[in-house]
Amino acid sequence: MKEILEISGLDMMQGILDGIYPPAPISKLLNYNVHAVERGKVVFRGKPNLASRNPMGTLHGGWYGTILDSAMACAVMTTLPQGKIQTTLEFKVNIIRPIPADVEVDAVGTVEHAGRSTGVAVGRIVDVASGKLYASASTTCIIMTPKLK
Fold first, then answer.
1. Span 40-60, pLDDT tens digits
2. Nearest-CA neighbor of 14 among 38, 46, 31?
């Protein structure tokens, strides 16, 4: 944690993209990774695996929520200065249509507001090949200054 607090949020996210810092373990479990980073915007790319399907064979809603939460919260992270962190306060996901098996998607998180105490972002899951929209979302993140012991 101390090392992360010594760099900006944008540098941290760029470091994850470049392989300097490890990604969140859940991204490996759910088969997605950081694909692009810029200030105020982060893209995660993924392909839902069979383990992410529900008993009816469709993609579990938690997969949509997790990749969108990652994209939106990390987009907020890119706006933070050194010494600040964030975490999700709340988020809402609108699943528009099911993601078919073997379809690669991008979850794009874009910041709408980055203040001293909160950040607000929106997200979209789109088909990499066709651009078809599968889900949209919004989030509010709290911005904090952690106290190290």
1. 999 999 999 888 998 988 899
2. 38
Would the pTM count as exceeding 0.90? yes
Q: Is 24 exposed, middle or buried (0-12, 13-18, 19+ CB in 10 A)?
A: middle
Q: How many structural domains comprise the chain? A: 1
CATH number at residue 121: 3.10.129.10
* Cα–Cα dist 85/83, whole Å: 7
Helix axes 61-77, 9-17, angle to 10 degrees: 130
Greatest extent of the chain over all pairs of C-alpha atoms, in Å? 49
* Residue range of the domain that includes 7: 2-144
CA angle 37, 68, 66 (to 5 degrees): 120
If you count them, how many residues does the chain have?
Answer: 149
Q: Is 50:119 a contact under the CB 8 Å cutoff?
A: no
